[in-house]
Amino acid sequence: MNSAIMSLSNALMYEGRLECGSERTASAVLQLPSRAQVEKELELYVCQPQYSAWVQAALEPNSPVCFLDTSEVPAHETVEKSGISNHTEAILVQALVTLLLKAGCRASDIGVIAPYRQQLKAISSLLQGDAFKALEVNTVDKYQGRDKSVIIVSFVRSNPEGNLGELLRDWRRLNVAITRAKHKLLMLGSAPTLRRYAPLEKLLRHLQQEDMIFQLPPAAHEALPGIHL
Fold first, then answer.
1. Which residue has the higher pLDDT, 209 or 27?
2. How far apart are CA 64 and CA 103, in angstroms?
3. What φ, ψ does residue 189 adopt, rounded to 5°?
């Protein structure tokens, strides 16, 4: 992983002891050959700057880590017998994947992680078609010991009580999730909900200090109607 992504694990678990294997690895960034073209297309469809600023940050190779705070969208979780999901976050994941592919990223270089199987189903149902076939959507545990150029993490939980359940309280799982990306790590979640637990509060504090948190505007998931593959 590059140095920006490594800094998260250092802040969360290793107190600065981790080091990149080489300068080349430390400075490696995502290559998006068609990014300028996608940003021009965004200008045509999205009139208000605040609705495209977060997308530009997500596509910017020199911003390897972005936490996209969904609290003002809003993006509320749904708890059902079948499990916990967050449909708005799933739509935002679909938008990010589509934009990355349009900008020149290969589907096989993108991985999506979510802590709940119901969320994986919601995301997978939106990523249908040949263009998405090589993309991997899986749990944190399935990514153990593996990596991708780009990882998108959907944290799912968003509720007034700040209830996260057991999965997101696990320091080890969180560390695995944030260290699977080599060049670009995009995280989606409700910062006020996630801050209620120590591992995520520690992570978010570091992200804030490094200006890696981007507040999504209201109805951000509805602001990209013209972006299609």
1. 209
2. 15
3. 180, 165
Chain mean pLDDT for the chain? 89
Confidence category of residue 21, pLDDT binned at 50, 70, 90: low
Helical packing angle, 198-209 and 171-178, nearest 10°: 30
How far apart, in whole angstroms, are the C-alpha atoms of residue 14 and residue 147?
A: 19
Domains of the chain: 3-222 (3.40.50.300)
pLDDT at 35: 95
What is the three-class DSSP state of 76? coil
**Neighbouring C-alpha atoms within 13 Å toward the C-beta of 213:** 16
* pTM more than 0.90: yes
Q: Which two tokens stand for residue 201?
A: 């509060």
List, in sequence order, every residue forming a beta bridge with 46; answer none if it has no partner.
Answer: none
DSSP string, 105-170: --GGGEEEE-S-HHHHHHHHHHS-SGGGTT-EEE-TGGGTT--EEEEEEE-----TT---TTGGG-
